[in-house]
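Hey, resending since the last one bounced:
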Amino acid sequence: MAKHLQDSRFTGSNTSADEEAIPLAEEELRVGKREVTDKVRVRTVTDVETELAHASLMSESVDVSRVPINRVVEQAPEVRTENDVTIVPVLEEVLVVEKRLVLKEELHIRRGVETEDVDVPVELRKQRAVVERIPIDGDESDNTA
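The structure tokens again:
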């Protein structure tokens, strides 16, 4: 905004033909804020690049065969190796038992019948219908039928 200022020396009745009036200007600053509401879209983009990965893979296989022995031994044999073959003994304990039939006890069961009268509280549900009339145009006579 511009303001024009004039000096009293240049205005008034004292001005002659040789004198000229020079207008003075002054600027003023006005700072304000306004809210801007714009829409913004944010998205992500993933780029994929394919590269060759080099690796050395080693695999090892084993062959397991079961050889039945079925021999009674006094103590457990050790794991051993013969001609690039590892031999692992598998043991089983066998219980030797003599079996006899022994009567240990008897169960004696008697049946008896008793009758007892009891009073037990029980909840019974019952439904009923309530019909109400809704007055039309201010008719407020009987609301219950």
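The chain has a mean pLDDT of 76.

Sorry for the duplicate.
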